[in-house]
Amino acid sequence: MIAATLGLGGNIGDPPAAMAQALTALDAHEACRLVAVSHLYKTPPWGKTDQADFFNCCTMIETSLSAEALLDLCLDIERGMKRVRIERWGPRTIDIDVLTYGDQTITTTRVEIPHPRMTERAFVLMPLANIAPDLVVKGRRVGEWLADADKAGIVRVDAWPESLSVQLPRS
Predict the structure, then answer these.
(1) Is the pTM of this model over 0.70?
(2) Which of 10, 81, 87, 146 is positioned for an S-S bond with 15, CB 3.0–4.6 A?
(3) CA torsion 147→152→158→164, rounded to 10°?
């Protein structure tokens, strides 16, 4: 098994419920096990700013899937939850990004790990630092990246649905 981190987000419908559903689906997969789930954060949109605020979280999993197979699983979960990709950085019901995969650096036509923009995004760094502040990404600890990031407008909220069918291992 290898430890991987994922970033989840959304701003259409009920994003906390959608992320909880995605986390439940990940944990239900035979090749994945949730190890930690961050707090939930409400964050301003990034890239395309004329849209509703997002909710974001990160999770650490253990998996026996390859990095590309993990990406495929994330995309399958998104499709199963009716994610439609219309506009880059646009509104979405759910988004699941593979951030890290062990300590590996992987670049293929389908996947780039570590996620190429994760160190620029406080909406990724803040929840990731909640569960893995000492994780080294691109030569620096996540907590160090976060210290340099623009955290304006990011608010921690604890709005995980009571009906979450898997007991989240929260930090």
Answers:
(1) yes
(2) 10
(3) -90
The amino acid that residue 62 corresponds to is E
Residue 54 vs residues 45, 46, 109, 153: alpha-carbon distances, Å: 6, 9, 28, 11
- What six digits make up the tokens of 63? 């998996």
The answer to whether 83 is a known catalytic residue is: yes
- For residue 132 the two structure tokens come to 């893995």
SS3 content of the chain, % helix, strand, coil (to 5): 30, 30, 45
Rg (CA), the chain: 15
Write out the two tokens for 85.
Answer: 């990709």
Residues 6+ apart with CB under 8 A from 92: 9, 10, 11, 12, 83, 84, 85
Does residue 92 carry a catalytic annotation? Answer: yes
Per-residue pLDDT tens digits for 61-85 = 999 999 999 999 999 999 888 756 5
Catalytic residue among 14, 53, 72, 97: 97
148 is catalytic: no
